[in-house]
Amino acid sequence: MSNAAIVGINWGDEGKGRMVDLLTQDYDVVVRFQGGGNAGHTVVNEKGKFALHLLPSGIFRDGVVNILGNGVALNPDHLVTEMQEVMAKGVALTPDNLKISDRASLLLPWHVRLDELEELRLADKKYGSTKQGIAPFYSDKYQKKTILAGELFYPEELKAHLMDVMVWKNLTLTGVYDAEPYTEADLDEWISGACAKIKPFICDTGAFLKEAQENGKRILFEAQLGSLRDLDFGIVPYTTSSNTIAAYAPIGSGFPAGKVDEVVGVVKAYSTCVGEGPFVCEMFGEEAEQLRQAGGEYGATTGRPRRTGPLDIVATRYGVEVQGATQIALTKLDVLSYLKKIPVCTHYEIDGKIVDRFPFPVLLDKAKPVTEYFEGWNCDISGIRSWEDLPEAARNYVLYIEKEIGCPITYISVGPERDSIILRK
Ligand code: GDP
Q1: Phi and psi (nearest 5°) for 99?
Q2: pLDDT of residue 301
Q3: pLDDT in tens, 50-102
Q4: Active centre residues (catalytic)
Q5: Residue 303 Cα to ligand 1 middle (Å)
Q6: Residues of the chain whose pLDDT is less than 50?
Q7: Is the dihedral angle over the CA atoms 45, 273, 71, 87 positive or is it negative?
Q8: 299 C-alpha to ligand 1 centroid (Å)
Q9: How many CB atoms lie within 10 A of CB 116?
Q10: Distance (Å) of CA 255 to CA 59, 66, 204, 248, 330
Q11: H or E, element range at 111
Q12: Ligand 1 mean position, distance from CA 18 (Å)
């Protein structure tokens, strides 16, 4: 592999963090190209268990340079907290191994507040936001009403710019939501607090990536969430507010001329979905709870219990298509070991018709899952490290998925640890 992107194929939480952590051994640079602190990657390695929200998953490898690209929603307060947590466990973070794009827009103090206020206003029609300010941030970015990280190097211009944006934003806060306005003192505190702490890490990451590429370095692009949360191709409006697909990786990295040679799509052996929105294959009651317990399916950022269901072939096939995945990492196969029969959502039924193409978002509410059952293997597979040693029923399950989604499954993960992996190439 030369450059590669690691992306989620479904609703997120597929186990991307674990795969990036594994693959970083083959890469020199890891770049986060979209999203903010609204989702989390969980990484387990010899240094401990980490819930990463904004930091790229390559920070645990010596010699790997980690970049937060211009496409991310950079909340200085959250980043500082996360950096402190990671450093407290003995991980070194310096301007040599962590670089923040000077073109990354900053999530401003009012974005989180606005997110909360809007979800409150929506009441029972809420989008299920994680209330990290992501939607207000990206809306403001596209309205050109936020600031670039690099502006922190120009204090005078920065203050004037921020004051202008604050005055404009206070109109919305007080007029639309009847909330408290922000003050100049709030801004001063923010600039001298978290912003000052991240400043040493800010640089021209575009120039760095260009040079790295010219010197033959290999770049890994890391995404957050999955295909179905993509702003343009996902389950609108229950998506995130950025593009989660691999095609966006070079742009959000600050290296628009960069090429993504391989796209590793991460698929979980069953489905989970956090928050509101259509989730056609959803299971309920005892069956759903058993799977949630078996997979430890609780949000890494919010602790929210995730909705669970069987693997959804219709959604996964679509996810593979929009990501342009060239290979698949199938994770958490071990979690299904307790089942005698493994359910799979093979098709949807909409108005009495069987469909195998993922439908337009409006139709998702009408879609019903068509479920088939596969033989389970019903034994512990977490210690298995080779394809041949997997029980036949597990191999059949993997081969069936591979055939249906039309993409080779090259990694099979059977545990959270770095080495709990079966390579199939
Ligand atoms: P991400 O955002 O896509 O990285 O997903 P999560 O943070 O939800 O990670 C998935 C969770 O499953 C984490 O707690 C991982 O440690 C764990 N995990 C990842 N792969 C496997 C696996 O193959 N088996 C088991 N049992 N756990 C896994």
Answers
A1: -130, 135
A2: 64
A3: 888 899 988 998 999 999 999 999 999 999 999 999 999 999 999 999 999 99
A4: 13, 41
A5: 14
A6: none
A7: negative
A8: 11
A9: 17
A10: 20, 14, 11, 10, 29
A11: helix 109-122
A12: 6
Calpha distance 137→75 (Å, rounded): 10
Q: Which two tokens stand for residue 307?
A: 């909705």
Regarding the beta carbon of 421 and ligand 1, being less than 6 Å apart is answered: no
Signed CA dihedral, 139, 141, 147, 149: sign only: positive
Question: Given ligand 1 and candidates 7, 11, 18, 22, which is best to mutate, with the most ligand atoms within 8 Å of its CB?
Answer: 18
The CA distances from residue 422 to 335, 390, 413, in Å, are: 15, 9, 6
What is the distance in angstroms between the CA of the first residue and the CA of the last residue of the chain? 12
| Longest Cα separation, the chain | 67
Closest CA to 263 of 423, 59, 407: 407
Beta bridge partners of 43: 50
Domains of the chain: 4-104+201-264 (3.40.440.10), 106-198 (1.10.300.10), 268-423 (3.90.170.10)
Neighbours of 190 (CB within 10 A): 18
CA-CA distance, 181 to 178, in Å (whole number)? 9
Instruction: Compute the distance between CA of residue 343 and CA of residue 313 in angstroms, rounded to an integer.
Output: 11
**Pairing between β-strand 327-331 and β-strand 262-268 as defined by DSSP bridges:** parallel
Q: Please compute Rg for the chain using Cα positions.
A: 22
- Top mutation candidate among 44, 331, 412 for ligand 1, by most atoms within 8 Å of CB: 331
Query: Minimal CA–CA distance to 74: which of 160, 127, 152?
Result: 152
Instruction: Report the nearest-CA residue for atom 6 of ligand 1.
Output: 13
The minimum-distance atom of ligand 1 relative to the CA of 49 is 16
Q: What is the per-residue pLDDT across 189-226, written as a single tens digit (0 to 9) for each?
A: 999 999 999 999 999 999 999 999 999 999 999 998 99
Residue type, 70: N
Q: Name the token pair of 328.
A: 């698949």
Give pTM, 2 decimals: 0.91
**CA–CA distance, 196 with 201 (Å, rounded to integer):** 10
412 φ, ψ to 5°? -125, 120
Tell me phi and psi for residue 275, to 5 degrees.
Answer: 85, -160
